[in-house]
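Ligand-bound model needed. NAP.
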Amino acid sequence: MLAAYVAATSPDDPLSVLQVGERPAPEVPEGWARVRLKAASLNHHDLFSLRGVGLPEDRLPMILGTDGAGIDDDGNEVIVHSVISDPAWRGDETLDPKRSLLSELHQGTLADEVVVPRRNLVPKPAGLSWEEAACLPTAWLTAYRMLFTQAQLGPGSTVLVQGAGGGVATALTALGKAAGLRMWVTGRDPAKRARALELGAEQAFESGARLPERVDAVMETVGAATWTHSLRSLRPGGLVVISGATSGFNPKATELNRIFFLQLRVVGSTMGTRDELERLARFLLSSGVRPTIDTVLPLEEARKGFERLEAGDVVGKVVLTRP
Ligand SMILES: NC(=O)c1ccc[n+]([C@@H]2O[C@H](COP(=O)([O-])OP(=O)(O)OC[C@H]3O[C@@H](n4cnc5c(N)ncnc54)[C@H](OP(=O)(O)O)[C@@H]3O)[C@@H](O)[C@H]2O)c1
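Prediction:
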């Protein structure tokens, strides 16, 4: 079957090790299900995998991809929940110390087929297109959990999203607006800031700009480049939820004094549960919100999509389709 995969990683030149070609179709273990993918979307995670982050040599070759939607062997239209927990684990899958994401231990979704534990299938609502459904399991689920499970903000709260154009950032902006939050956004590029306003942001600022007032919460995925600004933008008692650090893990100033003196809260967040994915899909239907899709390409042209993602050119998601 056709797949986008990595057979040898490269920390410095990830696109040089991206391969698009034939891989063996997967076996279906007992209790697992095969999904013929109709669409899959790219995430920054896929670039990290090409660099070898979280993907040791002994797991290669590995098919990339943590997001996908397709049809199972019984003909059901499904969204794939990408967090694979231990069969013995009960409760919130994201808290299982043995959990992994598709493409870390098990082959990923940038392919004709993927196999996952049967419990990882979520019904795809008919009101979502394949492309839209394929955006949900990673970036959109992460955004949903950050806002609604971790931050638990009431309507009217002011929330700053760092990094206007990212997959997670655009999801945060649209979901927050739909839930009655006042969404403010920062971004490096005027065109991406303009798009954020179209998505429902009330105001969009240049990265690092002084804000008109302090905010109740900051949603962080950019990391080192924006961390200081995030903590300085919070009101006393405010909350920063962090789920990624694209620009680096070690900010120049950790702002420990600010954290204790202003009694700030720093909360980590990773992916989301199967139940949260199901609720996210329902929220999209009831709110009318849809994922922002930057580009749709056939899987054969995966390289073009990775190039856009690596260049940081995207607003929203890059989706790869199968006939
Ligand atoms: N913990 C989890 O479960 C989880 C799930 C999903 C994603 N993540 C992580 O979250 C991060 C974002 O993922 P994504 O898929 O949304 O990535 P993406 O679509 O590639 O977006 C990249 C983002 O980073 C910003 N950015 C990059 N370099 C920057 C810099 N030097 N200064 C300021 N902003 C910079 C961009 O902002 P501009 O608009 O300003 O260009 C954009 O918002 C990644 O690190 C990813 O690994 C974690």
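The first strand starts at residue 2 and ends at 6.
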